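Customer escalation, tier 2.

The customer says the design service returned an amino acid string that "doesn't look like it belongs to this structure." They asked us to rerun it and document both sides in this ticket. The original structure tokens are below, unchanged.
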């Protein structure tokens, strides 16, 4: 017995509880309140520790006497009698089920001690039931108790052999936990499987029965170290996982903000590639808590859907505009083809500019027909080309001019290389072949290249003005 227990104090508490129980019958309160007060007194009694041995029997008998009085009083009220009897019946059935589970526990000493606690509860804590139920329940309960005691006797006969087997079993189970610790797991799913295995093994260790006394200290020290190591590994993984979760959530939120920014931009077509890259990047962000991932994904998907919906609407609108522009351009091209001196070519050119996007085919046809009009009006081909270029430049901004100059530079570079090659090739012709048709052809090509180069340089100079 613990030397620190205050026996006198416990005696006073239990005497006070007996007085409260005695007075409970005469208190002016509702029956359900009295019943709850009765249950509270019972609970306090069993929670209170030991009393002096000389007072124990008398005190217990007195307490039981007043419990019986309260039950007699309680049973005068039919409703509460039924409630209490039903409650007690459920309690005794539950106690029997708890006792049955003890039969298969490997630790027979532990099972016997636990049954003793259940027996005490049966006798002193659970109230009466109907007589016909009480007889059947009592037979079941004590039949289970006999089986538990029989198991204990069997254990005592073969104690040394059983506890050695228990020790070997516990060692093997500890080895299983060590294997779990050594196994590398890099996903939450794998760790959940590992934790389930650990809980199962740990439970088997706890119910596997006693081991030899000489092995206890060493074994339990080893057991605590291994269990501590497993929890440490588990905590370390989930601590790092929380950090990873936070980093990945921040990545998702960053992508969402970027997508929102791209969606609110005016140049959606330009941003299309960036949105597709964001979608690809999103798939690489793992792991993420399911609920957070679900919430963020719905938000991100809605932004992307809205973005591509806008692009589709713009394309549809542009498509309609292009068809309209195409129709207008065809009308203007017909007017230029049937151009009469009475008409003003400048008005047709201005109308052409207003038609918006122009296909390369229509633009070539426009330049060809307008050039023809210019030549008919008395301009040279060179002046016609220059005038056409000035018309084109008139509708360009600086960025478009720079782009056109860049394109011309590339064409010039190619033409100059081709001209050099032609001039080198012509040097290989001998004098006898001076009038050769191939030579004439090469000379014509050289001349053509030079004119083309001169034209492009002229166009560049006009663009730079």
């Amino acid at each position: 017995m613990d030397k620190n227990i205050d026996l006198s104090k416990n005696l006073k508490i239990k005497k006070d509880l007996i007085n409260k129980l005695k007075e409970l019958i005469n208190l002016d309160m509702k029956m359900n309140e009295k019943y709850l007060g009765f249950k509270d007194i019972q609970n306090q009694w069993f929670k209170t520790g030991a009393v002096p041995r000389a007072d124990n029997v008398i005190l217990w008998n007195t307490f039981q006497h007043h419990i019986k009085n309260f039950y007699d009083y309680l049973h005068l009220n039919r409703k509460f009698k039924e409630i209490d009897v039903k409650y007690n019946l459920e309690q005794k059935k539950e106690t029997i089920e708890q006792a049955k589970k003890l039969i298969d526990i490997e630790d027979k000493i532990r099972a016997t001690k636990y049954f003793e606690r259940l027996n005490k509860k049966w006798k002193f804590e659970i109230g009466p039931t109907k007589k016909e139920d009480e007889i059947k329940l009592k037979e079941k309960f004590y039949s289970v108790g006999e089986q538990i005691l029989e198991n204990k006797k069997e254990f005592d006969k073969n104690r040394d052999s059983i506890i050695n087997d228990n020790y070997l079993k516990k060692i093997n189970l500890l080895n299983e936990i060590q294997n779990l610790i050594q196994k590398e797991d890099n996903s939450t799913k794998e760790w959940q499987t590992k934790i389930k295995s650990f809980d199962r093994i740990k439970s088997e260790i706890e119910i596997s029965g006693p081991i030899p006394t000489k092995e206890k200290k060493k074994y339990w020290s080893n057991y605590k170290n291994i269990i501590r190591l497993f929890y440490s590994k588990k905590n370390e993984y989930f601590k790092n996982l929380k950090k990873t979760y936070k980093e990945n959530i921040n990545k998702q939120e960053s992508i969402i903000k970027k997508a929102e920014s791209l969606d609110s931009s005016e140049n959606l077509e330009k941003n299309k590639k960036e949105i597709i890259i964001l979608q690809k990047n999103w798939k690489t962000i793992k792991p993420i808590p399911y609920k957070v991932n679900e919430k963020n994904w719905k938000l991100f998907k809605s932004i992307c859907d809205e973005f591509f919906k806008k692009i589709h609407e713009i394309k549809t609108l542009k498509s309609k505009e292009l068809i309209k522009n195409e129709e207008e351009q065809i009308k203007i091209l017909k007017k230029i083809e049937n151009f009469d001196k009475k008409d003003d070519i400048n008005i047709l050119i201005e109308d052409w500019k207003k038609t918006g996007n122009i296909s390369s085919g229509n633009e070539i046809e426009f330049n060809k027909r307008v050039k023809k009009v210019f030549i008919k009006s008395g301009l040279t081909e060179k002046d016609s080309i220059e005038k056409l270029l000035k018309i084109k430049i008139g509708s360009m901004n600086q960025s478009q001019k720079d782009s056109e100059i860049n394109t011309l530079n590339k064409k010039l570079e190619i033409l100059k290389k081709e001209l050099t090659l032609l001039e080198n090739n012509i040097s290989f012709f001998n004098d006898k072949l001076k009038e050769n048709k191939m030579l004439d052809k090469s000379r014509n090509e050289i001349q053509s290249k030079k004119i083309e180069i001169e034209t492009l340089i002229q166009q560049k100079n006009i663009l730079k003005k």
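Tier 2 assessment: The sequence is consistent with the input. The chain has a mean pLDDT of 84. The chain has five domains: 7-159, 167-241, 246-319, 340-395, 399-465. Sent an explanation to the customer and offered a walkthrough call.
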